[in-house]
Amino acid sequence: MKRLKILSLVLVMCMLLSNLEISAYADNHRAQLVPVGNDINNPIVFANSNLNFSLSANGVAKSGSTYYITSSDTLVINTLTWSPSGETVYVGFENKQTGARWVHDFDGGSTANVGVTLGSAPDGEYYVIVMYMGSASVSGALSYRFM
Q1: pLDDT in tens, 40-64
Q2: Residue 38's beta-bridge partner residues?
Q3: Contacts (Cβ under 8 Å, ≥6 apart) of 47
Q4: Phi (first) and psi of residue 122, to 5 degrees
Q5: What is the CA radius of gyration of the chain?
Q6: What are the chain's domains?
Q7: Is the previous residue joined to 84 through a cis bond, with omega within 30 degrees of 0?
């Protein structure tokens, strides 16, 4: 009977630990990519900043400050460049309170004049983030603003 209790406890601990490892990526959601079109010169900008990054495997770079973002706000990627260009990077938002992330993937080493929104995510305080989920390393720069 005692062995059965110990075995049960070990199994429960294994399940909990495996859940923790999975949940590290479970909070990543897909952000919406939106066409910026003629709004690229929209004068209503409430933030304009840059984020330089050098990320190793599974790394995340965050903006130095948070922004209160609503579903009607658009993160406009003025320019995004990285190398090596064969790697995929993810750009989006990380909720300050929950750590949940809404990101969109980018390939090819550069992109410009693209908008990203929260989609169905709740309004709140968010960091702008660049993620790399590969096994090598990437470095680059993101220039962005909000409309």
Answers
A1: 455 455 678 999 999 999 999 999 9
A2: none
A3: 67, 144, 145, 146
A4: -70, 150
A5: 19
A6: 28-146 (2.60.120.380)
A7: yes
